[in-house]
Amino acid sequence: MAASKKIASDAAAPPLVLATPDYWAEACKHLVKKDRVMKRLIPQFGDAALQTKGDPFITLARSIVGQQVSVASAQAVWERFVALLPRGMKPASVLKLKIDDMRAAGLSARKVDYLVDLAMHFEGGKLHVKDWAAMDDEAIIAELVAIRGIGRWTAEMFLIFYLMRPNVLPLDDPGLISGISQNYFSGDPVSRSDAREVAEAWKPWCSVATWYIWRSLDPLPVTY
């Protein structure tokens, strides 16, 4: 369930719809009560919340573009990539792009291959898109990691930003680990075990807590 609102897009493409999870207020109330860091962080960001654009292909493509680069670099490349598709980011449109144009937008050869493979999976009907809402997190991850260029991190970003699953803990995300280090361990190194221990207080709202940890590092939210 999600509350949604339309936002303007370019004239050729339909308006995007940004949606926020209906559980957000309940999750924040729980986290403020259970976790001292969340009690400090959450009020700093007012009504800001996780938002999804509601398009599975865009979410996955955006995640691929963002792999192993900074948020700022990913955004710059993404904007140039989107500019190649004035009628909208659709699998069929991506398959019609010239490789040289995609490379000129700042995409590596490997990411071009990944994006083409992703588009082929959508166009070929190889994904159970209509079933995802009823599938559990691990089943969706297993299906997505079969696509070239999509590992567990990308699949977890998809669970958070597209399906808005409430209890995802992306331990492969360097921002999460860095944020836990800064907010809970005074900057000392943090292991995955340390992160899991911290996240025990977050359950069943690990996705929400992760979003606020990201905001503690970069106040401007990223949408996929």
TrEMBL record:
Catalytic reaction(s) noted: Hydrolysis of alkylated DNA, releasing 3-methyladenine, 3-methylguanine, 7-methylguanine and 7-methyladenine
Matching InterPro entries: Alkylbase_DNA_Glycosylase/TA, DNA_glycosylase, HhH-GPD_domain
One MF annotation (Gene Ontology) recorded for this entry: alkylated DNA binding
Record-annotated HhH-GPD domain positions: 65-218
EC number: 3.2.2.21
A GO BP entry: DNA alkylation repair
Alphabetized Pfam families for the sequence: HhH-GPD
This protein's GO CC annotations: cytoplasm; protein-DNA complex
DNA repair keyword on record: yes
Record key words, sorted: DNA damage, DNA repair, Glycosidase, Hydrolase
Gene3D superfamilies: 1.10.1670.40, Hypothetical protein, domain 2 (1.10.340.30)
Family: Belongs to the alkylbase DNA glycosidase AlkA family.
Annotated protein name in UniProt: DNA-3-methyladenine glycosylase II
